Structure formats: structure tokens, C-alpha cells
Amino acid sequence: LEGDWSAFAGQYYSEWSRAIHVVSPQETPGHWKRFRALDYGLDCTACYWLAVAQDKTLYVYRELYQPNLTLSQAAQKILELTPGGESISYTVASPDLWNRRQDTGMSGYEVMARAGLKGLQRADDRRIPGWRVLREYLQPFKDEQGVTRAKLQVFSTCHNLIRTLPALIHNDHN
User: Fold this and answer.
1) Which residue, 146, 145, 164, is CA-closest to 154?
2) pTM score, two decimals?
3) pLDDT tens for residues 83-105?
4) 105-113: long-range contacts at Cβ-Cβ below 8 A with a sequence spacing of 24 or more?
5) Cα distance between residue 70 and residue 77, in whole Å
6) Closest to 54 in 3D by CA, of 151, 129, 137, 155
7) Contact yes or no for 145/133 (Cβ under 8 A)
């Protein structure tokens, strides 16, 4: 429809548009609040760095997307990708990271904290409210200059988020 070859039947976030949501990397002011969003999994660890502009637009400006990392390796990689002078307010992570592992008796949170990753906070992982919030951030609108944009902007260097977010599909069983 309208020349958008990335749209497809069953797409969950039909608001997604590469033309609206993907932007060239740019300097983000140091005073903007920054945080990370982490989804740890042995099959793939995904971590995203976000900056919040004064108008509450979220800029996803860096990503880690790598399989087969242990918890401590994932923590170390996140720290390596975070420049020393960058102020990160917190890292929100899936609540299952606080579950104790049978093999060590420690939680993933404890392993990552011992590896130096500080400021971990439990995410609210209720799916439906989360979907609704993301849809609001993806919703296109016209700004004061008449330019169509959205409250979520993804730097073009975040290749995996750009590939995977629009590929999410509806589940008929919730």
C-alpha cells in the first residue's frame, strides 16, 4: 500500500515506517536522560541505549545484539559499549533476570552486578500495557513545522531493531 514494501498482513506494529522512525545518527545532548533496555537470553542478548529529548521523544542510539553470551560476558559487553563519560540513569531488564539459577544459586542480576553492570531495574513486563505504550510512541504525527514524525526515533545504526521490530506479528491467542 502506498509503496511501503515492509508492510504485511498480520504485522503487529503497522504504525512502523522506516521513513518516519529511522533517522541518521546525530549528536544527542549530554543533558538528556539516558537509559538502557536489556533483554538477556543465551540465544541472543539485546540491549538498547535510549536518550530522552526534552519533548519526550525517545532516541534509540546504540544496540547490542549478540548470541551466546554468558551473563558476565553480556554485562562486560554492555559496559564496553558505554563510553566512560556517558551518564546512564538505569538499565531496565526483564524480571526473570532476578530469578535464582540452579547451577550457581545466584540470580542473573547478581552475576551481572558482580561483573560491574550497575543500576539494573526490573521492567514492568505486562505485555498488553507495554504494547499500548510502544504503539503510542510509534504513532506518526505532524510537528510544528508540518513534518511527519513519531515519538520513537531509531538511529539507522541499530540494524537489528530496525529488522526485528516491524517483523513482529499478531498472535491469535494473545
Assistant:
1) 164
2) 0.90
3) 998 999 999 999 999 999 777 78
4) 108/40, 108/71, 111/71, 111/72, 111/75, 112/40, 112/71, 112/72, 112/74, 112/75, 113/75
5) 10
6) 151
7) no
